Amino acid sequence: MSKIAFLDIDGTIRAFDGTVPESAVNAIQKARANGHQVCISSGRPVEEIEKRIIDIGFDGIISASGSYVIYGGKCIRHVYFPQELYLDIAETMLKNDCVIEMQCHDKSCIVESQTEDFLKLGEELQALLGNSAAKLAQIPGVVSKAGDMEQVEKILYFSDTFSNDDVKRLWEDLLYVVPLSFPNPRKFGGELSMATANKAEGIKSILEVSGHCVQDVVAVGDSENDVEMIRLAALGIAMGNATDGAKAAADAVTDTLENDGLYKAFEMAGML
């Protein structure tokens, strides 16, 4: 029976130092050769997914944690902040000294007035993560004010004073909030998107057009923003290097990425 697998990128296909194990590439390509479909399911916006990852070969892409979904070569789902809500969030965070990055499917930007703050944050990330933080530390696009961005799908924020509780108090019913998927040098931080934007909802949008059902779904991930898709899947697998939350949600735990964890996950799923 044909299955459809959904894979996180960082910590599942790609190590945080940038390494992509050959066994991971082999697993994906062999599964597709065996008649299964394999899709990316990432918190990254599309424009931040490396070409070398896409070139491995995939049948679809869930990006920005379910906000922007591509299947069959076209966008089938696009969820973004209403402009009024986006401006409320961005301006509130800027007033409270948060460093923020606004992400759309085709670009990511910071506000010009935060350039020095972002450079300092980049230095802190590199001190914490070494060379693996090189991409994170790069300044994305720059806009003169938050209102210059439209159809924003996700906001990343970093702060020493504006807490996750503050975020929930102000916008809890409207937002999907998860911890950052990489170590945070600041006291608080997270990834914000619309409440209807998560990887499980992205998977459902693909199932509506792919001919598969939930019983065909295999999901493999390693972080908190993978929990919903791991729970949705008929077989949800956490990487050996996954967070405790991802492991608790999973039906099974495979080995770490470096120890051929993705290949072993596909073996568990009967896709190889």
Q: Which overall shape is indicated by the principal axes computed on the Cα atoms?
A: globular
**What is the H level of CATH, i.e. the homologous superfamily of the largest domain?**
HAD superfamily/HAD-like
Q: Quote the beta fraction.
A: 15-25%
Instruction: Profile the largest sheet.
Output: 8 strands, mixed
Distance between the termini: 12 Å
Secondary-structure element string = EHEHEEEHEEHHEEHEEHEHEHEH
CATH class of the largest domain: Alpha Beta
Name the structural class.
alpha/beta
- Low-pLDDT runs: none
The residue-averaged pLDDT reads 93
Task: Predict the CATH topology of the largest domain.
Answer: Rossmann fold
Count, helices: 10
GO molecular function: magnesium ion binding; phosphatase activity
Pfam family, one: Hydrolase_3
Organism: Catenibacillus scindens
GO cellular component, one term: cytosol
Topology of this structure?
Layout: E1 4-7, H1 22-33, E2 37-41, H2 51-54, E3 60-63, E4 68-71, E5 74-78, H3 83-95, E6 99-103, E7 108-111, H4 115-129, H5 134-137, E8 141-143, E9 154-159, H6 164-171, E10 175-178, E11 188-194, H7 199-210, E12 217-221, H8 227-232, E13 235-238, H9 244-249, E14 252-253, H10 261-268
Parallel strand pairs: 1-2, 1-12, 2-3, 7-8, 12-13, 13-14
Antiparallel strand pairs: 3-4, 4-5, 6-7, 6-9, 9-11, 10-11
